[in-house]
User: What shape does this take?
Amino acid sequence: MIPAPLLIPQRVLLGPGPSDVAPSVLAALSKPTLGHLDPLVLRAMDELSEMLRALYRTRNEWTFATSGTGTSGMEACLANLIRGGDRVLVLAHGYFGLRLAEIARRCGAEVTRVEGAWGRPSDVERARQAAGGGRFALVCAVHAETSTGVLQDPAPLRALADELGALLVVDAVTSLGCVPLEVDAWGIDAIYSCSQKGLSCTPGLSPVSFSPRAVERIRARAQSSPTFYLDANLLMAYWGGPRGYHHTASSNLYYGLHEAARLALEEGLEARWERHARLGAELAAGLEGLGLELGVAAEHRLPQLTVVKIPEGVDDAAVRGALLERFGIEIGGGLGAFKGKVWRIGLMGSGASPRNVALVLSALRAVLGR
Amino acid sequence: MIPAPLLIPQRVLLGPGPSDVAPSVLAALSKPTLGHLDPLVLRAMDELSEMLRALYRTRNEWTFATSGTGTSGMEACLANLIRGGDRVLVLAHGYFGLRLAEIARRCGAEVTRVEGAWGRPSDVERARQAAGGGRFALVCAVHAETSTGVLQDPAPLRALADELGALLVVDAVTSLGCVPLEVDAWGIDAIYSCSQKGLSCTPGLSPVSFSPRAVERIRARAQSSPTFYLDANLLMAYWGGPRGYHHTASSNLYYGLHEAARLALEEGLEARWERHARLGAELAAGLEGLGLELGVAAEHRLPQLTVVKIPEGVDDAAVRGALLERFGIEIGGGLGAFKGKVWRIGLMGSGASPRNVALVLSALRAVLGR
Assistant: This one.
């Protein structure tokens, strides 16, 4: 039995990502496939690198995209920077901080995991104490924790990393394109994100950027990284210089991300940040107006991902099911320690619109009977 | 400076992949993006698994796609099956056999690499002697070597693997959908392929399949695999059973591969194999008619990828450049030891048509002045 062609409806994606993809990005995804070494693809990659530099606010030469989702970018940063036995300090106050620690462990690091309460940012002073003045290879933190909706300011981590002799690795999966992010000004050495949240492309690519110091460390490896697929030395030879074959990248995903990055830069980063801040605040006020309690205090709240506590006696799955079935709206459930306890409502990239704020508030009011 | 939107021409892709993507597959890629845990996406994944089983001729429960290119599938098979110190026997007579050995080494295996001449299949008897009757965890080989255009029959490797107590791992990147492949009948324990060759989708997904024995070995790991992104235990929990979040897979790539698999099964595997065989033979005869020498003897030649020796005095880059510029035709150059020495002409999936055979022969005749 051969299944029928897929019939895919138009949803409104207001979960933790993917976010709604703009029509011109969807159209770009279906332009004719080209070879991964076609001169036109190589030129598109150069333009993509340049746009990713602008989005990350960096002059880092090695700014490109791995052929995988955000987790591939996380693994690329860690597997290339960690050498067996390295000490790695991870600030974890949510699911993705814990994932950073887990991947660092698999890469052979001796991990010091500083766990903070879910729903708040990590305390840098506590991390400093946990490090105990030792030498570390990396300090890792999550800029926008997708599981809790918490913003962590990476800037103060630079001083800590310097004290420990470490490079600073930042997870920007849910922050890029949504909230202020300044890779060079904040002294970030390695950063990764995704294509499907603040940039509103389909998933499948992870923008990464390495500082000159990080590249030096990667180039100086005596032992090759444990991963071949995400080996940064091989990826750098494909994205620049010799243009050597490493893997058969998807031209179509490049087209999509190229168009999504174009749209973000056409809007302008400051305007985009302002739009997310304004609409996130509107959504938060509207949710509180429905008598719902938010998961994060205003000063640490992500405008692009609002975490709401599920009220006592309300059936998580039933509410999300009704939003999906009756209104075609996706919101996110909880992850890890927050499973069954919170909803996560995303307003990301092209999905961050007054229309979507109005829609989700109205639909939630109907489903909750408020 | 924000770059202009990409203008992508219609090429004819007759290299080693990607192959030309059918219009309905391109259209599928731009259907509305959905969340990776949307019930409709989960259903599409179930259908995709079922179709991949049919394409691989297997009843293996764990038949799914990793979110990456063919190399991600190679790494997924090796990194999940190898435990540090395991002995791994690799038959290598080309670039991708060598890549298998390299990735196995990075996974901590003690690799016995049996190197054969490029342009011929590996000699199973030599591999048996090299193994010296020892115990091995894996025997690895490439079904269709993309760098040399050589077909290796995997069936006789089952007996060798049995003698060594090993699982049999096969690279089907360039074979799936083009030439006969019988995962269950041939006793293959782990296999991986790609989306962009015999199946004619865009790159970005790697169909993999694990036999029950392979799954048992993966589930019994005491140490987690070095890769988190490609951890088969976590991927199995996403593709089946608990449907746990692991990574944010691209619904759009799933749509594309779903449609490509549908088209392959609508045609029928036997009909598809016959079409490739017939057109590959036509192309080979046509190339010899132009006075060109083929790289592989007829009995070991891949119909879907014909390797041609570049005639003395002919400029490799100039010829491929002229085909691309004047005719919009991509053919492949040589890889590794064959760089600058051969061309690789692919007739894969929807690109394997009488029209393309006629076109590439005529264009080559014009460019070579024959």
